[in-house]
Fold this protein.
Amino acid sequence: MPATDSAPVIRFENVVKRFGDNTVLDNLNFEVRKGERVTLIGPSGSGKTTILRLVMTLEELTDGYIYIDGEPFTYEERGGKRVARKPKDVAKVATKIGMVFQQFNLFPNMTVMENIVEAPVHVLGKSKEEARQRAHELLELVGLSDKADAHPSRLSGGQQQRVAIARALAMDPEILLLDEVTSALDPELVGEVLSVLRNIAETTNITMLIVTHEMQFAQEVSHRVLMFDQGRIIEDAEPHVMFSNPREPRTKAFLQAVL
């Protein structure tokens, strides 16, 4: 378990997100510490994926602040006012964050190797040789050493998702966001992806924020589990407590429905 006195790597402060009249996140406050793996559970539409999309700057905050490593991310307070940070400052902080999506989002016209080295070369400024060497290491980690020259269309869904994980790790992120990474897979392919993620959890100190319906996986890899309902955290507990003796009736009802 990460030290409780370590500084938060991700901190949400009074975060509000609305889509029109619909408030998806309602004055949300929580933090994730360095090396901590936190899983968000709850019914569809409770705001879980929106949290990840805000951290990836795929959605814009309606109100409040997000801090990454103690630094204001997309908005900061200046002269008593909430102001947007400069795009270049946001982009610099964003290099610390990697995300694996439900859909694999691989470039179909590129080989597996090209998909993995593209961002390290063009965003981080790594040499092609350095990026390729790291890509080979990551393909070995995800069990796809023999697929470097294949195109995504020649791979199964599980293999494509493992490439997507390798691609996210190639940016050497401090934070890895996982958004329902097995939901688009056939049931028999789910295990191979979860096995790779378990291995990453056990062998690295990457901070993870996870949205999943795979409750067994959540129990095995998480340090904390947060139960969401209607844009609020209604329960925050260690996995063995959350899954065996939840406090809130809403949590009990949700887990009875999904387990």
The mean pLDDT is 92. The radius of gyration is 19 Å.
